[in-house]
Write a structure and sequence with these properties.
- By secondary structure, this protein is mainly α.
- Helix 19 packs antiparallel against helix 20 and helix 30 packs antiparallel against helix 31.
- The protein has 32 helices and no strands.
- It starts with a helix and ends in a 16-residue tail after the last helix.
């Protein structure tokens, strides 16, 4: 019994760390992505907490997996994912299989640890009566407020940052460590009973802190770091490293905060009102429109419960005042104080859509999503039954984007390396086809159907579980234009809320199944092995990531030997990761260690074969440094397949083709047509076309091409020499542009001045 109690207490502490530390803990100079530490801590804590829950259940004679309406849909989804991945693995050329294995294993690990385990934990730990248990809102408010204000002293008391390879200097700070110890101790103390209502308040307190910090960032006030973090212009990232993650975290919890406000008495209502307005402010300063839509969808879903509508009618004045304050906050929300080129208001952010539609111009956020969605549709349509393979969107997306970018000029300035589809329906379609999409729809139908039935006759005590389900609905609505479901911290709170809602369904009875002794031992051993494996995996990932970022920084300061050393250590820690291996190749290439660079780039392709830069670098090394231009051709062609806009790849491939025109004349002809269609202002392409025309004795066409190259660049000496040589070879008179070159060069050096008051009008057709 003592061991069971200890396991439950430790499990609650690990869950408290998931809700409190993981969304808030971040480093700015330790890893390239500040949320790596969050991911590592979250995965290890989730695995350990799940193992303890399973141990506790088996020790009490309960099954390790409580039943839920999603038992079969979970199995169906796993089967669909496995089938789609296997079809892709065996159906693709062997070149892609290492990358398919690497990307697929990462996706399945995410599915198991970041999706299924939070859902399973909620089923284990949440009980229907927990939601109506008494809770001290004042104690929570003082804890969250006091801990947040304690960080005001951090800028004055923090130790100086470390160098590029100083792990301790960039990781450890005595004052910060003290605050984290006190914060975790307080969170564990308040959640010691392990009730759903306690974890909900901890999550809401975390959302309050993250939102308040985001608002301070928005107004150019920084409590923690020497400079305001603004990688997204005026959009606040808070502690999440990305504004879309912070906003989605708030979307999931927003309906719960609203219900707590609705159900609270007058003495506590101001606490939840402050929480609600601060979370709304966090949503606003993220400037994430999809999350605004998701928050509204989550609140609207609450209205499905007659009891909630009755509560609204029963005491309308506080709710009306809160609604008025919320609307005023949104309508009057000011510009960000960060000095950035893009600082719209909320109204301005919404007005952009209408302005872009009326002007019929390219609007980046919308047209880039159209590009991603079109490529996503093509991915699924190529194999409608099972899609491109579960977890393989990022790997194969660039190959579908390339032809679209080349064919449609509207997309050429919007090329991106998308990690996800920015639409959850298209995401499922692209990766798993009709099979996966059908199971996905079945999954969420099986989730929302019992929730809607329960909402119709829901008592007051069921409103908070209903709010958890409404938060999940809001997150799904958000992810019709967002990607946050595929990142660990937002995904964790989403799946916890989904599991918590199902665990609280009225009439749900304790599972009476008695696990067999041998199965209990097997499950217990398997869960222990799972924790050990996951902990070791994320230990390796964390060491890889900080070594990689150390090498990345050293490489930017041209410390090649030190950078290579750090990047080699990142490679040795593994598991293989495309960015660290790519930077290792760059360090070798800059040090002229070309054989080693070639191997590092090849290893990067085995981690993720979807980056044109890697193919291009291999092609250049093969052609220019290893003396193998023929072996460079497939890599440069692959680079152009992914990125047809790369003028450098066009030039390199043209040079190889034209170096052996007898073998590659037709390829060179086709490539030059593509290059000039995309880059008509590139003089090198015109010069190469002139050379190709001269080889076939089409002297007039060659002359026109050389002359065009010189019009574009009068200082292009190679084109001038080629034009003069052509005249001698063909017996044709020298082209008139040669006589005009001195004048064109002088004009290039001294462009004509525009007199004041006579502006040049750019007439666009």
């Amino acid at each position: 019994m003592i061991l069971i109690t200890m396991a439950a207490t430790l499990g609650s502490a690990l869950l408290a760390a998931c809700f409190f530390a993981c969304p808030l803990l971040f480093f700015t100079n330790l890893t390239r992505n500040p949320y790596v530490a969050q991911i590592v801590l979250l995965n290890v804590c989730l695995a350990a907490a799940s193992a303890l829950c399973i141990h506790e259940a088996l020790s009490q004679g309960r099954p390790w997996r409580p039943r839920s309406p999603l038992d079969l849909p979970w199995l169906g989804w796993l089967a669909a994912c496995l089938v789609s991945w296997a079809v892709s693995y065996w159906g693709r050329t062997p070149f892609f299989r290492p990358a398919i294995a690497a990307e697929g294993s990462r996706a399945f690990l995410f599915l198991g640890v970041n999706c299924f385990l939070p859902f399973l934990l909620a089923l284990h730990r949440v009980k229907a009566e927990d939601w109506s248990a008494p809770v001290s809102a004042g104690a929570w408010a003082w804890f969250i407020l006091g801990w947040g204000l304690a960080w005001m002293g951090f800028p004055a008391l923090r130790r100086p940052g470390g160098g590029a390879v100083d792990f301790i200097g960039n990781f450890w700070d005595p004052y910060g460590a003290l605050l984290w110890a006190l914060g975790l101790a307080g969170a564990c103390r308040l959640c010691r009973k392990g009730r759903a209502i306690d974890f909900l308040h901890l999550a809401l307190g975390t959302a309050f802190l993250a939102s308040a910090y985001g608002v301070l960032q928005y107004f150019n006030i920084e409590w923690i770091w020497p400079n305001v973090l603004n990688p997204y212009g005026g959009r606040s990232v808070s502690t999440f490293g990305n504004p879309n993650f912070m906003s989605s975290f708030n979307v999931v919890l927003f309906p719960s905060a609203a219900v707590l406000f609705l159900l609270s008495n007058a003495s506590r209502r101001w606490i939840y009102a402050t929480l609600l307005l601060t979370m709304e402010a966090g949503l606003l300063c993220s400037l994430t429109r999809s999350s605004w839509l998701g928050a509204l969808a989550g609140l609207a879903a609450l209205l499905a419960a007659p009891e909630l509508r009755r509560q609204l009618r029963q005491n309308p004045r506080p709710q009306g005042l809160m609604l008025a304050l919320g609307l005023a906050l949104a309508l009057l929300w000011p510009h960000s104080s960060i000095k950035s080129g893009y600082t719209p208001t909320v109204i301005g952010r919404l007005a952009e859509i209408g302005q872009a539609a009326q002007a019929r111009t390219i609007y980046g956020p919308w047209h880039q999503r159209l590009l991603i969605w079109t490529a996503s549709w093509s991915m699924g349509a190529e194999n409608p039954a099972t899609g491109a393979g579960y977890g393989l969107f990022e790997l194969f997306y660039p190959f579908y984007q390339g032809p679209l970018v080349e064919a449609l000029e509207v997309f050429r300035g919007l090329r991106t390396h998308a990690n996800n589809s920015h639409n959850e329906i298209l995401e499922v379609w692209a990766q798993t086809g009709v099979l996966g999409l059908g199971v996905w729809l079945w999954f969420w139908t099986a989730f929302f159907t019992p929730m809607l039935k329960a909402a119709k006759n829901a008592p007051r005590s069921f409103l908070l579980p209903l709010a958890a389900a409404a938060g999940a609905f809001g997150m799904l609505a958000d992810n019709l234009l967002n990607v946050s479901l595929h990142f660990p911290v937002p995904a964790f709170v989403f799946w916890w809320c989904a599991g918590a809602a199902l665990a609280s369904l009225p009439g749900r009875q304790e599972d009476a199944r008695q696990p067999r002794r041998w199965s209990g031992v097997a499950v217990g051993l398997a869960s222990a092995a799972l924790v050990a494996g996951i902990a070791w995996h994320w230990t390796k990932v964390f060491n890889r990531e900080w070594r990689y970022f150390s090498g990345f920084k050293l490489l930017r300061h041209s410390a090649l030997a030190q950078a290579s050393q750090q990047l080699e250590k990142a490679r040795d820690w593994g598991p293989p990761e495309v960015n660290s291996l790519y930077e290792l190749g760059n360090s070798y290439a800059r040090a002229q260690r070309f054989q080693e660079a070639r191997k590092a780039y090849a290893a990067a392709l085995q981690a993720n074969a979807g980056y044109d830069e890697i193919y291009y670098n291999i092609g250049v090394i093969e052609a220019a440094h290893l003396g193998s231009p023929r072996q460079a051709i497939p890599f440069l062609e692959a680079a152009l397949c992914i990125n047809p806009l790369s003028a450098e790849a066009h030039n390199q491939l043209q040079n190889i083709y034209l170096g052996d025109p007898q073998s590659h004349a037709e390829r060179a002809e086709a490539l030059l047509k593509r290059a000039l269609a995309l880059h008509p202002g590139n003089p090198s392409h015109w010069n190469n076309l002139g050379f190709l025309r001269a080889l076939s004795s089409d002297y007039p066409a060659a002359e026109r091409a050389y002359a065009q190259a010189l019009r574009l660049d009068p200082n292009f000496s190679a084109a001038e020499r080629n034009l003069l040589a052509l005249a001698r070879q063909s017996g044709r008179p020298i082209h008139p542009i040669v006589e005009r070159l001195p004048l064109l060069r002088r004009q290039l050096q001294n462009p004509p001045r525009i007199p004041p008051g006579n502006p040049v009008i750019n007439q666009q057709r």
